[in-house]
Amino acid sequence: MSSISSKGSSRAPWITYRPELKVLDCTVRDGGLVNDHQFDESFVKAVYESLVAAGVDYMEIGYKNAKRFFPTDKFGPFRHSDEEAMRRVVGENKTGLKLCAMADAGKSDWKKDILPKKDSVLDCIRVACYVNQIPEAVEMIVDAHEKGYEVWCNIMAISTVNENEIDQALEVLAPLPIATITVVDSFGSLYAEQVEILVKKYKAAMPGKEVGMHAHNNQQLAFANSIEAIIHGANRVDCTIDGLGRGAGNCHTELMLGFLRNPKFKLRPLVEVIQNQFLKLRQELDWGPSIPYIITGQRNLHPRAAMEWRESDKKDRFLEFYDKIVTDI
Fold first, then answer.
1. How many CA atoms are closer than 13 Å to the CA of 28, on its beta-carbon side?
2. What local confidence, expressed as pLDDT, does residue 62 receive?
3. CA distances from 113 to 43, 59, 87 (A)
4. Strand 180-185 vs strand 98-104: parallel, antiparallel, or unpaired?
5. HSE of 298 in the Cβ direction (CA atoms, 13 Å)?
């Protein structure tokens, strides 16, 4: 089942589309967690140009995180997304693609590093926080809005947060100038029924704001859960080309564009960039579903342990990982 256009037939909704539904591609930002954002600028430019040609609405080009936490001798330029680095890739971005960067609560010098919108090529700031960081996130949201940006908020690892805490967090965020509030399945542990509950909760608590979905693919449910969120009214969806992202990766942009049926979206540019750029990258980097990620996803655990295992000389010793993680055997 696909999304339903207000003018479409309820008997065959999969042949229609919802024009207000927007796609945010976070390939460079989330994918950079696989290699400390050590991407060649030619790769970032190829991703940018493919997204422009494909008609994607937003590109998250990287983080706005502090160099004191992420030093430049270890982390690539899109961990910090300085103006000079971004403009080398996108120029003045005179396209229909909106550019975003993510600022993490507790990891960003946002007061000085996020410039006024008039001085930046960015259009949107996505504030990311854990539920215990809501007080700082409130300040960050107000600051970014006052600087002229469209502001989104991502409450991370929502699968680990109890219902009362979610309700209180949404109550605090509701009056703020947030354009989109995103359901973030950081651990890839959610099922369709949980996605439905969360999307409906966010929509009810945040009237007048859009709800988004950011799904990880630990249980190979990222695409299905993104569809589920759309069915229940989410009008913003995150995805990445070829699923490139931390650990098991994300919902695939190429899958999402095909599902949405909006004629403005073009699949060929993504197929081209996957062939020309991502096939090579797969020979260097490890991402996508595997047994260790399935185990952490099913147990609602951070994929950190699985990531470390996949980077070790034990990467394919799945049974040993299972016995290490699972204690109720």
1. 33
2. 98
3. 24, 19, 16
4. unpaired
5. 10
Give the distance between the most distant pair of CA atoms in the chain.
58
Is residue 113 helix, strand or coil? helix
CA proximity to 256, closest of 48, 10, 55, 98: 55
Does the domain formed by 18-282 have CATH 3.30.565.10? no
Query: What pLDDT band is residue 320 in, cutting at 50, 70 and 90?
Result: very high
Residue 197: which H helix or E strand, with range? Answer: helix 192-205
The answer to whether 286 and 275 have CB atoms below 8 angstroms apart is no
Band the pLDDT of 326: cuts 50, 70, 90.
confident
Query: Stretch 233-248: mean pLDDT, rounded?
Result: 97
Residue recorded with tokens 């990880």: 216
- 34 or 8: which carries more pLDDT confidence? 34
Residue keyed to tokens 């055997």: 329
Query: What single letter denotes the amino acid at residue 167?
Result: D
Q: Summarize the confidence of residues 125-147 as an average pLDDT.
A: 98
Give every CB contact of residue 155 below 8 A, 6+ residues apart in sequence. 129, 130, 131, 134, 161, 166, 169, 181, 182, 184
- Nearest 10 degrees: Cα torsion 127, 131, 132, 138: 40
Residues 6+ apart with CB under 8 A from 177: 141, 142, 145, 151
Q: 10 Å Cβ neighbour count for 255?
A: 17
- Which sequence spans correspond to the domains of the chain? 18-282, 291-325
Assess whether pLDDT exceeds 70 at residue 53: yes
Q: What is the pTM of this model?
A: 0.93
Burial class (CB in 10 A: 0-12, 13-18, 19+), 261: middle
pLDDT tens-digit profile of 166-179?
999 999 999 999 99
For residue 141, the tally of other CB atoms under 10 A from its CB is 23
Spatial separation of the C-alpha atoms in residues 121 and 98, rounded to whole Å: 9
Q: How far apart are CA 125 and CA 255, in angstroms?
A: 25
